[in-house]
Amino acid sequence: MKSYIYTNMKMAMVLHVGFLLVLGLIHSQAALVPKSYDYEVREANFTRLCKNKTILTVNGEFPGPTIYARRGDTLIVNVKNSGNLGITIHWHGVKQPRYPWSDGPEFITQCPIKPGANFSQKIILSDEEGTLWWHAHSDWSRATVHGLIVIWPKIGRPYPFPKPYAEYPIILAEWWRQDVEAVLLDFLSTGGDPNSSDALTINGQPGDLYPCSSSETTKFIVEHGKTYMLRMVNAAMNLFMFWGIGGHEVTIVGTDGAYTKPLKSNYGVISPGQTIDLLFKADQPIGRYYFAAKPYNSQPAISFDNTTTTAIIQYKGYKKSSSPPVFPHLPKVNDTSASVNFTGSLRSLATRAHPIDVPKKITRNFLFTLSINTLPCPNNACLGPRGLRFAASVNNITFETTNISILDAYYRRINGVYGDDFPNFPPLFFNFTSSNISRSFETPLNASEVEVLEYGDTVELVFQGTNLVAGIDHPMHLHGHSFYVVGWGFGNFNRSKDRLSFNLVDPPLQQTIAVPKNGWTAIRFKADNPGVWLMHCHLERHISWGMEMTFITKNGSRKGESMLPPPPDMPPCT
């Protein structure tokens, strides 16, 4: 049986990856990291919550194996699909400069890898440094098909903070007793909300507060006086999470593969899809302390898994005691102020060694509304509001899946697959955050429209949450780019007033950002990565309902500004 006790990062590498080659890496700037990985997607049996079930995995592991790299590396991941469904893999936060062919979203940049087939995916790192992750990007397979990507500085370059004694992974996720694909098929067929998960997990284990779980609770061994790094990702399907360490203050030093100014806090919140790097010093009395995570949910009308997952941080020298581990003080499950105050406090490091480049002269402006919608249902027999079917949209367009990939259609100039008329602004303006919105606005348009950008465009995009059907936070993720989060607020965005308070000095550089319930978030980025790039909400039920759109960035005119050709083993669509 796999051990879930981590004594240092070297041990974590052995347990979680199995690459003896990387032993000692954390202490040696000259050590090598693997440049290729073999990923076999296959089913495996796991027991959680007193019940055995078969889940889809990579290499039989849950969570899946960690990828280790250095800034600027190029890696090859050979993916073999030994499962019984088509699958794609996305390298979340990796920009893949000029090479969207390995980005992974199903029917956006590729068709699924068929059962029995292989696809060698090239992972091109550029300026990313810190923690990213990978996950399936087809159906709901990412519930169990996911893992970390750890990107160290180039050899000879230090961290911009004191080197931690050791590093540990924290992968937050959800666990269903039911088959996850059955959950997906059920809520899509009924038109209602999906069944809630039955447990939250840390590194695959629910923890002490769930049945049949305490003997395998994830445990980290620490030495008094040492400083440790936690590399954390929220791989949950549908939940934001509050988290903290009992009795310990933490210092945030990075998010989404970019460094931040040190931010000290007693708690944190993490969006689905987001990564956070944090430091903590083992400076408390020798004992045991919980790392705990629980949901943050701003919409009381929806059901969700309101439980708490735990891992144990145990000091060396601890003597067995009947006292339980010290529990952190976490915000209430609906504490929106705690959520936005934490996320809104993140700032880019913005130093000479780690500079930023916030676009100042904007060439393209967008306002995108994010809405929950309804669609008609025969005989009003669906399980959405008033017997209707749930949907979701960006600027009132519910994305309609194509039967070949948009990237292939764009590259090969195949007509009729998608349109290029995605609206820059909402087609209808009203009080987006009112508590009394006319139901006539609820029905979206189903379409496969894209937004075309010129190479070098500087983009300002404001996400506007709406209160249609039910307002809620939306973790928005953009593929192929990082963006600067220059502002946020509640209510309707006021361009003439709200832009005056934008942070253009040290805004955080992210790829996934929480748009607050009935509020707005403004981002800026430069369209300097030619290709086809998906943007979507990272709440899985929302993307299943259609809250996604696609950018196409055209080739530039100079050398090195054009999309690279496809690999010879691209999965076929027929």
Automatic annotation (TrEMBL):
InterPro entries: Cu-oxidase-like_N (IPR011707), Cu-oxidase_2nd (IPR001117), Cu-oxidase_C (IPR011706), Cu-oxidase_fam (IPR045087), Cu_oxidase_CS (IPR033138), Cu_oxidase_Cu_BS (IPR002355), Cupredoxin (IPR008972), CuRO_1_LCC (IPR034288). It catalyses: 4 hydroquinone + O2 = 4 benzosemiquinone + 2 H2O. The keyword Glycoprotein applies. Keywords: Apoplast, Copper, Glycoprotein, Lignin degradation, Metal-binding, Oxidoreductase, Repeat, Secreted, Signal. Its EC number is 1.10.3.2. One of its GO terms (cellular component) is apoplast. NCBIfam families: laccase. Lignin degradation and detoxification of lignin-derived products. This is Laccase. It comes from Ambrosia artemisiifolia.
